[in-house]
Write a structure and sequence with these properties.
Length: 304
């Protein structure tokens, strides 16, 4: 089966497979969905299938498959943003130049524009000409997360394929097969995205320290908690992400215990996020955050 190495969106695997089997390809597609769920992997596997010269596809042995795997296929091109900020008109002009030449190995040519929501308006208007009158052998796949950034004239020319976030089970499966650490709190921060899961891994020690702080709220005195919380004081750059983690853990505990102290704790965290975004004194915000949550967890020590 094709798309074997991609987790999730099984209905789209069947759909794309059928488009090839029934010979019902159109000239342009939009692969839409949140970042980090495998859209560009799907687009690449789909391209390889379209270009393969044998049946059943993918054969992995024809010259097309071999060229594709060696990233050296003359009938295939993937365009990415060069500066991470935009895709410019000269990149689209290059695509147009290449696409006008007949295919060399396969009987189709496939062009992927990754993060195509980064195309400038000039680039989009330029692409529109190709979408309006594509060469008969051309297939263009726009991969994107935010379709509001595309001109409606572009969208109306493309067949939309909507990707879903991965389920927790799918993320677990991915984590297990790649030896990644993943618990239910981390899962809720991933929000169905493998790229978020991978980002979390680079920070996994921080999250373990946060678990330690959370476990201490009901036991230790406030001085000990402050002492344990160095991670918060030195994480000014990604504090929002860490606070989100607190929120997710508390939300989960709330669901399991129905204990209202977790509602208060979440409110304290939201207040802290607001204060930080209004440039309140950083250390003081963290001091107060820890003190207030600790008070919620130790009702005997009220502020009176
Ligand atoms: Zn092949």
């Amino acid at each position: 089966m094709n798309f074997d190495n991609i987790i999730g969106n099984d209905n789209i695997k069947v759909l794309l497979d059928n488009l090839i089997k029934t010979n019902s390809l159109v000239h342009s597609y939009m692969f839409i969905g949140t970042d980090g769920i495998g859209k560009v992997l799907f687009a690449n596997d789909f391209a390889k299938m379209i270009l393969c010269q044998n049946e059943p596809k993918v054969c992995n042995s024809c010259s097309s498959c071999i060229k594709f795997d060696s990233k050296n296929h003359p009938d295939f091109m993937q365009i990415d943003s060069e500066d991470g900020k935009s895709i410019k008109i000269n990149q689209i002009r290059l695509l147009q130049e290449k696409i006008s030449e007949k295919p060399i190995i396969s009987n189709k040519k496939v062009y992927i524009i990754n993060n195509s929501d980064l195309m400038t308006v000039e680039a989009q208007n330029c692409l529109l000409k190709t979408l309006e009158e594509p060469p008969e052998y051309a297939v263009i796949i726009l991969v994107l997360s935010n379709e509001n950034k595309l001109l409606s004239t572009i969208k109306s020319r493309c067949t939309k394929i909507a990707f879903q976030k991965l389920t927790n089970n799918e993320l677990m499966k991915y984590a297990n097969s790649n030896n990644l650490e993943l618990n239910s709190s981390l899962l809720s921060v991933c929000d169905g995205s493998i790229s978020k899961l991978l980002n979390l891994q680079t920070n996994i020690e921080s999250y373990n320290l946060l678990d330690d702080i959370i476990a201490s709220f009901s036991n230790d005195n406030i001085i000990d908690i402050w002492n344990k919380s160095e991670i918060l004081y030195k994480s000014k750059d990604n504090i929002i992400q860490l606070l989100e983690y607190f929120n997710n853990v508390f939300l989960e505990k709330l669901k399991n215990t129905k204990d209202t102290k977790y509602i208060s704790a979440i409110k304290i965290i939201e207040d802290t996020k607001n204060k930080l975004s209004n440039n309140a004194n950083y250390d003081m915000c963290i001091d107060n955050l820890l003190l207030q949550i600790w008070e919620e967890f130790n009702e005997g020590y009220s502020r009176s």
